[in-house]
Design brief:
17 strands; single chain; 16 helices; six-stranded parallel β-sheet; nine-stranded mixed β-sheet; binds nicotinamide-adenine-dinucleotide; about 35% helix; alpha/beta
Length: about 475
């Protein structure tokens, strides 16, 4: 890996503290950082280098996977860190920043490889990119790259504008858009799971699969993010990005021996194949809902409307379920159901594949009591794959389901941010959202946003601590299915 300078905008923020510094430290401990590197934290707070290094060390103590207890290693890591006060719209301040970056490059005798990370509110993305350009920070004799956080736009138009703005300074191959679901080991594993296992590969189509169900349920409510969430809702916060990315990773059917580019171009192919849902038809395929008071994990909790910071009479969706069709010959007739919500019964991110129950349709069926075979890919909180088959109970003579579990994760596995930042440092964009995928996702979501804005589909209620409204069950029942794997 090439030596580089890591310039972090928003280094005093929540994400930097909880995820980015721990990720950099863990990469360092695991010898996945370059031999020489410089980290420059930017913010408005009045830290100096020493006080900022202490602040970073505290974040490692609290959040790092590898406990920072080896003094020599911790000190060596902290020595690479400098702090610079910069207000993002202070044009002159970027000249000072350039001087600092160049000074560190010459002290460490490293090439001008510069990684810019925007861990700040999205309204600052444009102004920072402009200033990187205007100040000369972006004129490097080495490479320059940009890591950017979600949200990438608020709708199709704003996402396009943002992309146009950024592309004045950064070429597409220099931009690494984080969708942290793509950093989850089980999601990354999907490409190998379906392409490196001939047994699975041969089943991954509409001849064998009846439907696919992708769930991302949370137990928490809006927490401290009420102001942000009330203008975002589940459709923007979860569906446009994470849910559709997981769907793309699931629907990919790649041959063995594929390249990183194959993964991205196949994801784009799937994104293009998503059957559009018009604003007028949204009510047929989409269920939106909001939680009311209920009991979560044995505790009475208030409804969304009563949460502090939520506008009176808010129509924001805290739950969305959707039926998605992928117009590709291998997925013809297979509904992909997605479902995400806050204040649901359990925290779970999973993909459930229900296989066709051919026995039920067979004229010579003698074992019609068998359950459909089922494959559950659990992404969070556990990482495991569970296969459900049928077996005969010798005592009763009846068929009954049996399951086999393949546990993937261990406690000390690298976290999503480690994997993603490590990939970006290596220039590997496989598990980042390409602009084409982002644009296609917004295109798919846009008519649904408009239907929500016009209230042209009902806003259902669901009690906190449940799996969502009845309408979500009815959506699957239309094809004779039901949500699988709920506790
Ligand atoms: P935060 O509010 O905790 O931190 C924002 C940072 O921006 C702070 O360091 C602050 O000092 C800095 N900042 C604000 N205004 C500034 C200005 N005018 N000039 C210079 N610096 C300024 O936010 P966060 O939670 O760390 O999130 C950062 C980004 O990551 C946001 O885009 C957010 O949407 C995204 N994100 C965060 C999380 C998370 O878990 N925190 C998850 C996903 C995405």
């Amino acid at each position: 890996m090439e030596a580089m300078t890591f310039v972090l905008f928003g280094s005093t923020g929540d994400l930097a503290k909880r995820k980015i510094f721990p990720a950099l430290y863990n990469l360092y401990v695991d010898r996945k950082m370059p031999e020489a590197f410089s980290i420059i934290g930017l913010g408005r707070k009045s830290f100096n280098d020493a006080t900022f290094q202490t602040y970073v060390e505290q974040s490692l103590q609290e959040f790092s996977r590898n406990t920072p207890n080896d003094r020599k290693t911790v000190d060596a890591f902290l020595r690479s860190i400098r702090y610079h006060i910069l207000n993002v719209d202070d044009t002159a301040g970027y000249q000072e920043l350039l001087k600092l970056v160049e000074q560190r490059e010459s002290e460490l005798n490293i090439p001008q490889n510069r990684m810019f990370y925007m861990s700040v509110a999205p309204e600052f993305f444009g102004v920072i990119a402009d200033n990187i350009n205007a100040s000369g920070l972006g004129n490097t004799s080495g490479w320059k790259r940009l890591i950017i956080e979600k949200p990438f736009g608020h709708d199709l138009e704003s996402a396009r504008q943002l992309n146009q703005h950024l592309s004045k300074t950064f070429a597409e191959e220099e931009v690494f858009r984080i969708d942290h679901y793509l950093g989850k080991p089980m999601v990354q594993n999907m490409e190998s799971f379906t392409s490196a296992n001939p047994v699975i590969q041969s089943l991954w189509n509409n001849r064998h699969i009846a439907n696919v169900q992708i769930t991302a349920s949370e137990v928490v409510g809006v927490e401290e993010r009420a102001g942000y969430y009330d203008h975002t809702g589940a459709i923007r916060d979860m569906v446009q990005n994470h849910m559709l990315q997981v769907l793309m990773m699931t629907a990919m059917t790649l041959p063995g021996g594929h390249t990183a580019d194959d993964v991205r171009s196949h994801k784009k192919y799937i994104a293009k194949a998503l059957r559009p849902i018009s604003k007028e038809d949204a009510h047929k395929h989409i269920v939106r809902a909001q939680y009311v008071n209920g009991v979560v994990s044995g505790r009475e909790v208030q409804g969304y409307q009563d949460e502090p910071g939520i506008e009176l009479g808010s129509n924001t969706d805290t739950f969305v379920a959707a039926r998605v069709w992928v117009d590709d010959f291998s997925w013809e007739g297979v509904p992909f159901y997605i479902r995400t919500g806050k204040r649901m019964k359990e925290k779970s991110t999973r993909i459930v594949i229900e296989f066709k129950n051919t026995m039920q349709n067979s004229e010579i069926c003698v074992d019609c009591d068998g359950q459909p075979n089922m494959l559950t890919i659990s992404i969070n909180p556990e990482e495991k794959i569970t296969l459900q088959l049928n077996r005969r109970n010798v005592k009763t003579g009846l068929l009954e389901p049996m399951t086999s579990e393949f546990v993937m994760g261990t406690d000390n596995d690298p976290e999503a941010y480690e994997l993603l930042i490590g990939d970006a440092l290596n220039g590997d964009g496989t598990f980042f959202a390409h602009w084409d995928e982002v644009e296609l996702s917004w295109q798919w979501v846009q008519p649904i946003l408009e239907a929500f804005a016009d209230n042209s589909l009902p806003l259902h209620d669901y009690a906190a601590g449940t799996y969502g409204p009845e309408a979500s069950d009815a959506l699957l029942a239309e094809q004779g299915f039901r949500w699988l794997g709920d506790q």
